[in-house]
Amino acid sequence: MVVLPVEVTAPHPDAAPPRPPAAEPAPQRSAALPRPATVPPAESAPRHHPCHPLRRFLPPALALLLAAPVLAAAHQARSTPFGDHITVHARVAHEARPSLRTTRDAVEAYDAETGRPRWSYAREGRRPLAVVPARGDAIALWDDGLVTDTARDDGGAVRWHRALPGVSPWLADHGGSGVLRPLGARMLAVVTPQRIAAYRIADGDLRWVLPARRGCEFAPARAVRLGTALLIAQPCPAGDAAGSWTGEIIAVDDLGRITPDRTPLGNERHSAGHPKAEKVVARPR
Questions:
Q1: Model pTM?
Q2: How far apart are alpha carbons 250 and 57 in whole angstroms?
Q3: Which residues of the chain have pLDDT under 50?
Q4: 75-83: Cβ within 8 A, 24+ apart
Q5: Edge-to-edge strands of the sheet including 146-151?
Q6: Residue 32 contacts by C-beta under 8 Å, 6 or more apart in sequence?
Q7: Alpha-carbon gap, residue 148 to 161, rounded angstroms
Q8: By the number of CB atoms within 10 A of the CB, which of 7, 26, 117, 208 ranks highest?
């Protein structure tokens, strides 16, 4: 067996110690990007669109627009109270009050100089029988027994309506001559065969009622004015003991029947007790 000599070289005392083997560098990881937030499904999350409030109110608005013509037609089709229809033909400022007349189916205010109508007032299916001026009003009697008051200057409004009970058959036979009798500037007497009723012109308030004597009737066409008094015929049957000529004439003024116990022909106050006087509905104001 042959042994080969091995040369061992000792390290130099000034030599640096050997470096340990370098460790393999760790694999470089790329910087992790932040995960996007989880978005819920579209059907579960409300979507806030800038036009969403407008879209929410649009259907009701369209419904109102579509309903407007229907509502307007319904309003036009609805009948007015008492069948009133006023037509203003011409508005004239600072002119004299118009004259009044009745046509076949309307009360008409017209210019006295030119004859041109200013306004007309009609009632559905009714015919005016008479019209009289009173203060600034036009008071009309209709064939159904209705009395109306209209603003005379411009026809702007019908101020009041008053119904006369049970007179339409008599009006059909005799017409409206003498039925409307103004008593001064503030009161209107409506004379029918059975009674005289007085209305305040300002508002149509019933002030007093005077019934005809039993067996007798008032004659509206047979009346005459004497000062502030209105003398009205009240014919009675020939065999009536109380039917003397003095009993067949009734005198009234704005306060009611004029009697011997009152200051005659236009007194300004009632006497105490009202003997043989009319039925007073309301005290004078």
A1: 0.65
A2: 73
A3: 1-10, 30-31, 44-45, 70-79, 264-277, 284-285
A4: 79/124, 81/161, 82/123, 82/146, 82/148, 82/158, 82/161, 83/123, 83/124, 83/125, 83/126
A5: 128-134, 137-142, 146-151, 158-163
A6: none
A7: 5
A8: 208
